[in-house]
Amino acid sequence: MRTPPAPRLALTVLERFVPDNEALTGDLLEEFDARPSTVWFWVQVLAAIAAAWRTRGAEIRPLRLVDFQPADAAERTRRYGLRFPSVNLSPVAGMGGLGFMLLIGLMTRTMPAAWWLLLASALAGCVLGAVLIVLARPGGARMTEPGRIVPSGAPRMKGSV
Amino acid sequence: MARDLLTDFELMILLAILRVGDEAYGVQIAREIEATGGRRVLLGAAYTALDRLERNGLVTSTLGAPSAVRGGRAKRYFRVTARGVRAVRNTQRALVALWRGVPQLKERRS
Fold this sequence. Notes:
The complex is a heterodimer of chains A (161) and B (110). Chain A is mainly alpha-helical. Chain A contains six helices and two strands. In chain A, strands 1-2 form a two-stranded antiparallel sheet. In chain A, helix 1 runs parallel beside helix 3. Residues 140-161 of chain A have low confidence and may be disordered. Chain B is of the alpha+beta class and 110 residues long. Chain B has a single domain (8-100), classed as Winged helix-like DNA-binding domain superfamily/Winged helix DNA-binding domain (Arc Repressor Mutant, subunit A), CATH 1.10.10.10. Chain B is 51% helix and 14% strand. Chain B has a two-stranded antiparallel ribbon with strand order 1-2. In chain B, a hairpin with a 7-residue loop joins strand 1 (59-66) and strand 2 (74-80).
């Protein structure tokens, strides 16, 4: 008897929400081949997404302006570029290059002073990000939970490891 | 100095990799834990723990060749590093030390 194909939607959801998923997807397909149960497959996919989200919540993402880490964004852009050739001159997936250039042109034409504000904001963001990363390193302050930073001299909470 | 101790799931994963040997990848690790440890393993949770162990230098991974049964995806083989073996030993020592002298856990000989 032929094994039914794995649920396409589950695979798409897995690839969308779990970064760096090649080995995991392969393992799930291999197991599905041995025990073809759609319910089992969905349970595994949803559990993988939940586990990935819990991990991402604990990662350092100053200000949380982006959904994914820069490495993930670069990888997704590369894959997107391979799948769909860029026709809008955009260097970043999901962002229109021509629209972006138009916005830059308009801004330069109508209020060039706004560039200084943008530059100052970017610099302040970089400094803040660097400070948060240094504080979160071992030996510096430690991050106990997302958004809560404890200085290195502070006593550890009961039950923490 | 405080030693790095493992969680029960991390300990099971490291022991499963050591038991399986060079062919240890996600499915094999999960099957080993289920068969020997009697614990049901979700592959996503196993990979999350494996990623954490790799970040902490307790395991290393290499990609194998893709295969048709895996939809053209490669296997990711795991090996326990010397630091990982040390962490397993440290955790074993801590658990055995805690085990000793607990009256409720003493074996009854009848």
